[in-house]
Design goal:
five-stranded mixed barrel, OB fold (Dihydrolipoamide Acetyltransferase, E2P), single chain, about 475 residues, eight-stranded mixed β-sheet, alpha/beta, 2-enoyl-CoA Hydratase, Chain A, domain 1, 3 domains, about 45% helix
Length: about 475
């Protein structure tokens, strides 16, 4: 287990070099430009969520989404819409060619919309992945839900909700005063000129037409340096890591247990450190966690190591606090918290993280119970147990194996632990040094022990110290 901390630090430092390159420095008052190109997908959600939090935490004066998309997944669009509606700084969409389908819904979640001279927005009718229309009942349910979401998002950001609804519902008529802007029967799509046309002194949808980002900032009266945030090579990886969070937690916990259980084996510690490092890395890139949660986890790990190495038989305070800090850091890393929200998360913010942590812990308990019962009986375990270094003094190095196994050790034979038994290690019985294993307890060096069971090469012992 002592190997876990330096391995974890090494992995974090390696991935930290990449994440440092993935993040641009944002100063107070900067204008952050975020590209929104290609398919609306979970990986795009991961990137936009990170970008929004980075802009807000950096004190940016505004964030501009440069959009060119024909749409994509509605579930990802819903999550992106929810994230943008939480923004605490002014949000702009610059439609540089296309804001089709799900892209138009995302644009309505920003406070200001500017369009390139040749661009379009709209046509957000839901369809199957094959491009075919939804079945009638499912179509009505989908449109009913999404039109309500679109209208509320449009109203919040100062847009005409009827226009947003007409993007999806062909039965929606758009009428301003006595003028019918769009009749029933077709899905609404607007060109830049149509979207920015002023009716009764107010643009139909877009704030104006801009030739570029610089032109937009001038027309919108934005002041500050323009900083671009771009997706890193790990954005897609971050999506998969966050989706596989319970498995990574399970791998980290099981690896740490095996590092305790099998002395001399470095692989379990490497696996554990890698799983935890990937867990924190994925949630960091996804905009869910900062390096402070890593610090909290490392502090908890240090307290657990202090408990094991120095206070194993006197107190459990350090261990309990350490485990609590580690669990807290794992839970906190999965919480989707935005700047300005309450410090202590509640409700839906906690639901998925708690479920992930619960699943991982329950699965780990089951796997550990199975390993604790059967692992000491395996040849693989005994092979690693024999790899530990011999303690100073008389030993059996060079003695044929059959001589070692012929040692007469019956239940009740007294001896002394030469190394820490965690639960395996070295012990002396008379003039012989042999490998032993406990029933699961940890026994410090130089502790009197007694044999409780022998099974071929496997010698099971317990502490002979009376409590």
């Amino acid at each position: 287990m002592r190997k876990l901390l330096p391995i974890f630090a090494l992995v974090c430092s390696l991935v930290g070099m990449e994440t440092a390159r993935a993040r641009d420095v944002i100063h107070k008052g900067d204008i952050v430009v975020v590209p929104l190109h290609g398919e609306v997908s979970p990986s795009l959600l991961t990137f936009l969520r990170r970008a929004e939090k980075a802009a807000e935490n950096g004190g940016a004066s505004a964030i501009i989404f440069e959009m060119n998309t024909y749409g994509g997944r509605l579930d990802s669009a819903a999550e992106i819409t929810s994230a943008l509606n939480r923004a605490t700084i002014p949000t702009y969409t610059f439609i540089n060619s296309n804001a089709g389908s799900a892209g138009s819904l995302i644009a309505l979640a920003t406070q200001h919309i500017y369009m390139a001279p040749v661009s379009a927005i709209g046509a957000a009718a839901p369809v199957l992945p094959t491009g075919e229309d939804l079945p009638l009942t499912e179509r009505e349910k989908t449109i009913s839900y999404w039109t309500a979401l679109i209208r509320s998002s449009a109203i919040k950001n100062g847009h005409n909700p009827d226009v947003g609804e007409a993007f999806m519902n062909k039965d929606k008529e758009v009428k301003i005063g006595d003028r019918v802007i769009h009749p029933k029967g077709t899905i609404l799509t607007l060109s830049a000129q149509e979207a920015t046309e002023k009716i009764n002194g107010k643009p139909l949808l877009g704030d104006g037409i801009a030739a570029s980002i610089v032109d937009l900032t001038q027309k919108a009266g934005l002041k500050g340096d323009i900083v671009s945030l771009n997706p890193s090579g790990f954005e897609q990886l971050a999506f998969w890591i966050t989706a596989l969070a319970p498995l990574l937690l399970l791998g980290g916990i099981i690896g740490a247990y095996l590092e305790f259980k099998i002395p001399g084996a470095s692989l379990p510690g490497i696996i554990s450190a890698t799983c935890f490092a990937l867990f924190f890395l994925g949630h960091y890139l996804a905009g869910l966690a900062g390096w402070e949660v890593v610090g909290l986890f490392v502090l908890g790990l240090l307290l657990v190591l202090i408990e094991i190495l120095f206070f194993a038989h006197s107190t459990i305070v350090f261990g309990v606090i350490g485990v609590f800090l580690m669990l807290t850091s794992l839970l906190w890393a999965m919480i989707d918290r935005y700047p300005g929200e309450t410090f202590f998360p509640t409700g839906r913010m906690l639901a998925i993280p708690l479920l992930n942590l619960f699943v991982a812990i329950v699965a780990a308990i089951i796997v550990i119970a199975i390993l604790a019962r059967f692992l000491p009986r395996t040849g693989l375990y005994r092979r690693f147990a024999l790899m530990t270094s011999n303690p100073p003094g008389p030993s059996l190095v060079g003695v044929p194996r059959q001589f070692v196994t012929a040692i007469s050790l019956t239940p009740g034979t007294l001896g002394t632990a030469l190394t820490i038994l965690r639960p395996s290690g070295k012990a002396r019985f008379g003039d012989h040094v042999v490998d032993v294993v406990t029933g699961g307890e940890f026994i410090p060096p130089q502790t009197p022990i007694t044999v409780t069971q022998t099974d071929g090469m496997r010698i099971v012992v317990k502490s002979a110290v009376e409590c």
